[in-house]
Amino acid sequence: MTDISAIESLKFQADPLADAVIADLVASGRIEAVNEVLAHFRANDQPIPEELPDSVRAYLIATDNPPEWADLDRVARTYEFFVDDGVHVASILSFAAMVNCYAQPRPSRVLTLTHKLNQPHRRLSETAQFVVNMMAPDPFGATGTFVPTLQKTRLIHAAVRHFITRSGNWDMAADGVPVCQQDMLGALLIFSVQVIDGMRRMGISVTEQEAADYYYVWRVSGAMLGIPAEAMPETLTEARELNVSLVEAAYGPSAEGVALTRGLLDLYENLVPGKAFDGVVSAMVRQVIDPRVADWMEVPRSRGWERMVSSGTRLVRVLERSEDRNPIARTILDRAGSLLLGGSVCTLCDGQSTTLDIPEDLRERWTTAGACPAARTTSTPSRPV
């Protein structure tokens, strides 16, 4: 069982390994130069660029491998779940996980103080790419791209910590460390446990084994992001319990959370032509998150659309039961998830179409099944971090 007192101490724990790298780069004025080099560092088997400072090279070497306890066969098994339900995972990440993150007042303050992180199109894009890289057939192996993604994400968190703590706008004694390990653990539970819960609220069938394996991949990834392994529950059952006692218990209203949620809803409403269908976005959000959280985040009510979305959810459950036997039902389900993710992709860069970098094997299998949203968008250069 997870030690709750130890979890509370994570509020004051940062990431010394990554923090030391950022401190060195700031002191030497080399952050922009390193950013330019790391932008081209994308593959697990890619040699570490020689032109990087010694501190960065040492960090990349130290964080190159998954923990010794990681069962890579189990990680690989989760790929089949993502082949079948990846578009649904992405939909719940977009409609539920983001709002649940905003329902935590302390992380919402961090996002608000960090301009680049409070832009919903950027967060959706980066989160979607993170999950796609994580769910590759061999995310930690030579053919994957997930290790550099983890390493860069960890440095971004360290940079946010560095600048916020020196901004004069953060009370460390009262609020702990910005982007602390407690907040990292909370985000991990939102993106794993709560995504599975959200899928089931939408009527998507997820077996307990699939759910446990999906959480396991996030647990391995969390260790590589610097979260202490002993802080992360070993089993899905324990993770669900910690989600209630740590994450859901921390939910509450805040001006920052409301503003961030409004920005997210605006992003999705811009996807739908005209104003007549705006209510469906809020109804979708309310379907997959706790009603209390929706009220705190001031998600608008639309009784008509909420009834229609609820009815649609019941239809999805019927289709799910017949999915394996009925190819038409499978097509409807895959298209629904694909449209949601495809719509997100089209708005990630201020309305400009973009294409997620989906691994070739996954792209082929989604395309064969008619469920690859990126196949219907036009690629444009991504914006710098």
UniProtKB/TrEMBL annotation:
Domain of life (superkingdom): Bacteria
Molecular function, one GO term: oxidoreductase activity
Pfam families found in the cross-reference section: MPAB_Lcp_cat (PF09995)
Residue ranges of domain ER-bound oxygenase mpaB/mpaB'/Rubber oxygenase catalytic in the record: 118-317
Coiled-coil stretches: none
Protein name (record): ER-bound oxygenase mpaB/mpaB'/Rubber oxygenase catalytic domain-containing protein
Source organism per UniProt: Amycolatopsis marina
Organism phylogeny: Bacteria, Bacillati, Actinomycetota, Actinomycetes, Pseudonocardiales
